[in-house]
Each structure stands twice: as C-alpha cells, then as structure tokens.
Design a protein that fits this description.
This protein is α/β, with parallel strands linked by helices and 306 residues long. It folds into two domains: 121 residues, ATPase, nucleotide binding domain (Nucleotidyltransferase, domain 5), CATH 3.30.420; 163 residues, 2-Layer Sandwich (Nucleotidyltransferase, domain 5). The protein has eight helices and 13 strands. Helix 6 crosses helix 7.
C-alpha cells in the first residue's frame, strides 16, 4: 500500500516541493521562488495551498513532511544562520510547517537530504562511504561514513562550502573569507567569468548568467572554459581533503552546476590524482547524480520518513 510524504527542497533561490510515494516516485511537484516570500510562513502557506489543490483533486494525503534546507538542524527542526536566506537567524521551520499540514515534520540540511535521496533512490544505493556535493546557490555536502549519514554533534556537519582555500581572496555571504563556495557556486562562477572577461576585454560582459556561461563553454568559448577549469581545480582541492579524511568510494555531483559535469569531471579527476596520497589515487569515482533530472533533495527529504 502506498504511503505519501511531502518532500521540500528549500533553497536560497528556489524551493521545490514534491509528493513522494515509498517507491521513490514523485507524484506531483510544485516550484516557488524563495525570495518572493518575505517570511517562511508565507512560503509554507503557498506550498500548503498547492498541496491542498492536488490532494483534493487526486485524493492523496501525506502522512509527513520532510524539509531539506540550508543550515537545517535535524535535532531541533530549525534553520539557523543560513547565509543565503533572509528570514532571520533562527527559523522554527518545523513548527511553522506543522501548523499548516497537521502532520509530523522532519528537517535536515539540504545537502544531507540530497545524499539520503541518492542513497535510497540513486547511484549510491550500494555505497557505504560517499559524499554528495550540492552545487548551486552555495556549496554543500552530504557525507555518508560506514553507511551512516554524518550529522555531527549540533546537526550542522557537512558545511563543505565554508571550508577554506587560502588562495581564494573573496568575501563570502556568510561574512567570512576564502570559503570554497565563493568560487564553486553559481555566483562564484559568474564572478570568475566576469573577472576574466574584464581582464581580456577591459569591460564587463552584459547580462551574464551561469546558464549562459555553461552554454558558451559547451560551444568552446575560451573564457567560459577557463572559468569552469578554474572552478573544477578549486573543487578538486576541496575533494582531495574529503578523500583523505574519509577514504571515499565516490563523490557525487548534484545541483544546477552539476549539469556541466562533462566539462568539470575530467578536470577534477586529473587534478585529484595530483593532490591525494598514492593509496587513494584512481580509487575514487567522481560521478554526476543519477537524479539530476529528478530532485534528490526532494526525494531525500521524503526518505526521512521511509
């Protein structure tokens, strides 16, 4: 008998909610632009209204709501000090959501949700030690060690994007400097491309987006390819640290930027072998998520109840 859970991927730019059954099928999906909502209550109300319309039409009722969010705390059901959200430092998101849906709510870091989705429904089904990197507005990681998701003492393990690379001289939205995600993120890629363009042409490009830069790279544009090569090299340095800390079998790339995997994965693989000890060389798979065309974070958020 099918059981239905609402999985929510609450991102700094976009929020996607999906009704998921226990076979990992997304029965319906609703999208929202996060910045259009001045408070988490308004966003949850919009999600609830969309769910209610589908529920009344199809006769499908959810028995739980799972939320993957930046700086989502599994233990407290809160979002705390999320640098890419503008709703305050402490958001009781589980309590807010329960008020609308009247069912149990579980919260987890968005990257952990993506990792759980990959473990239950994606390419990591048979893996026990792997990391899912979420490459989007920011850079997150969901870490599986010995077949257990790593949450840490306070529920915030996996802030990979805010680990440091001293060669980076950029200030992060979190207030710190030299964070990996100032390069390996949508805004990081945009900034790198603009800096290269300015240096080459002595003027700024017009209306540049990461989607446009990706398209240019696929067409062989020199500056776009240089942008992705630099991004992949910086990411490889971060991945090298993860590999040597956790002895991983795979690193899985998820998120909008991961669609550029044909360009960035070969660079990461080549650079990674220069950076790790001999015992780790050629032993770690760098893979695109098998759920890129679905939503691993929605599936993973729902899988908190499965």
């Amino acid at each position: 008998m099918n059981r239905y859970i609402l999985g929510i991927d609450l991102g700094g730019t976009n929020t996607i909610a999906g009704i998921v059954n226990n076979n990992g099928e997304i029965m319906a999906e609703f999208s929202f632009k996060t910045s259009d909502y001045n408070s988490p209550s308004l966003l949850m109300e919009a999600i609830y209204c969309s769910y209610l319309q589908f529920s009344e039409k199809k006769g499908v009722n959810v028995s739980g709501v799972g939320i993957g969010a930046p700086n989502g705390n599994f233990y407290r059901g809160t979002i705390e000090f999320a640098p890419n959200l503008n709703w305050g430092n402490y958001i009781p998101i589980a309590t807010i959501t329960e008020a609308f849906f009247k069912v149990p709510v579980k919260v987890i870091n968005d990257a952990n949700a993506a990792a759980i989705g990959e473990k239950h429904f994606g390419c990591a089904r048979d893996m026990t030690n792997f990391v899912v990197l979420t490459l989007g507005t920011g850079l997150g990681s969901g870490i599986y060690v010995n077949n257990q998701i790593l949450t840490g003492k306070n529920g915030f393990a996996g802030e990979f994007g805010h680990t440091k690379c001293l060669e980076i001289n950029r200030k992060c939205t979190c207030g710190l400097e030299s964070c990996l995600e100032t390069v390996v993120s949508a805004r990081g890629i945009k900034q790198t491309y603009e800096e290269l363009y300015l240096k080459h042409y002595q003027r700024m490009p017009e209306n540049t987006s990461v989607i446009q830069i990706h398209e240019l790279a696929k067409q062989g544009d020199k500056l776009a390819l240089e942008t992705y090569t630099y991004t992949a090299n910086v990411l490889a340095h971060g991945i090298a640290n993860l590999v040597m800390l956790f002895d991983l079998e795979a690193v899985v790339l998820f998120g909008g930027i991961a669609h550029a995997h044909p360009i960035i994965i070969p660079v990461i693989k080549e650079e990674l072998n220069k950076l790790v000890l001999p015992v780790f060389r050629n032993k770690v798979s760098i893979l695109p998520s098998s759920l890129l065309d679905k939503n691993a974070a929605v599936l993973g958020s729902a899988a908190l109840f499965f």
